[in-house]
Amino acid sequence: MTKTLDEMFPSEIVASLDKYIIGQAEAKKMIAIAIRNRTRRNKLDDQMREEVTPKNILMIGPTGVGKTEIARRIAKLANAPFIKVEATKYTEVGYVGRDVESMVKDLMASAVTMVSDEMARLKEADVNRAVDERLLDLLLPQVKKEAGSESVQSSDDSTREQFREMLHKGVFEDKTVEMVVSPASRVEIGVMGSGNSMDEIQEAMNNIGSIFQKPRKRRMTIHRAREILREEETGKAVDKEKVVEEAKARTEQMGIIFIDEIDKIAGGNSASRGEVSREGVQRDILPIVEGTRVNTKWGVVDTTNILFIASGAFSFSKPSDLIPELQGRFPIRVELDALTSDDFYRILTEPENALTKQYAALLATEDVTLDFTDDGLRRIAETAYRVNSDTDNIGARRLHTVMEKLLEDVSFKAEEYAGSTVTIDGAYVDQKLGDIASSQDVSRYIL
Ligand SMILES: Nc1ncnc2c1ncn2[C@@H]1O[C@H](COP(=O)(O)OP(=O)(O)OP(=O)(O)O)[C@@H](O)[C@H]1O
Ligand SMILES: [Mg+2]
Fold first, then answer.
1. Atom of ligand 1 nearest to the CA of 69
2. pTM of the predicted model, to two decimals?
């Protein structure tokens, strides 16, 4: 089993980020330390623990150098409740849009899903057994009816065992049975109507709708019936109160909220042109970061120990344009480096999801083999870097546009290349991109 985020040492967190993100060692390190400090804090005695509050992080760096990517990868390491939100999607209380408290509700919601999944997994064997019994109850009478009552006796234990074996072998998967399906078979965790945001009202309305639907008899395959029964039995097996209790504890003690694009709500000169006041949003965010109690449909969540990681390019504003109270709440600042041509070369090849691997896999489905030579890769990296410096620097995003253009012909006429190998070397890159990249005006539009 892989380690969960709260068990990982900082070096291990960094190592798993290294699989996807090139460079940015400082940022990875600071985040890894902050995450580990939560685990350390949890081991302190109550009195000391009260004193230790998370040190929130502000990541600053040019566009396209991996800020959001780091957040996405942390999210995948999972186990600690984590959500990523965009600062720009919030509005002040009273305006149409999402108010900032919804980020805490979303975090809690993700924790509830996470914990109930975990608990369901623990009960999986029990659930499967119960589902098998119910499927057999559906199957046996039906087969008996079809075979003309005498030949198969559903009361007969050995028949049932025989059927169980066949069921496990998948013999009945496509057989249709009749089953009563209650519309509320999707068991909702939580109490209705304690929240007040538009989202929750909407959800409550949907739930009300399903109350008025009657249970119905439906014909379906055993395969489909198993899915429905599994959901029902899981709902019964998992203790909802325990889920909520554990989810709340994890949210409060281990939760991480990543606020992306925070620079977009920083003051700047052009604030308040009749639009929603950015400063207003900052003022709304402040208490949540400082520690407050937010009402969710699972109860009150205390935000004091939630770790906040904010990030922004700050190309049109500075961290000091944020209101002072908020600045003070993000004491750890990390700057991400602009990417070099060398970084581009590594980004093209090293990450587990590297672009060259993606394209090679895509074209392999059409029986085309892409062979990137080393000097080909260097040329791609250099071209991307040059276009970035000649026009706008959009960081590693440039690699996407460059690769797309480079492989346009092969992608379009893949069938003509089927069964063959296309070698992408320096000459190929120059042939496809040379003219475009050397003209600023052209590359501004195409790359
Ligand atoms: N250091 C890196 N290592 C690997 N891939 C990277 C790196 N930096 C950027 N990328 C790639 O570039 C894309 C854009 O990066 P990302 O979304 O992280 O930019 P950002 O720093 O959040 O920029 P912005 O300030 O514009 O939001 C990512 O999807 C990823 O594929
Ligand atoms: Mg980003």
1. 18
2. 0.79
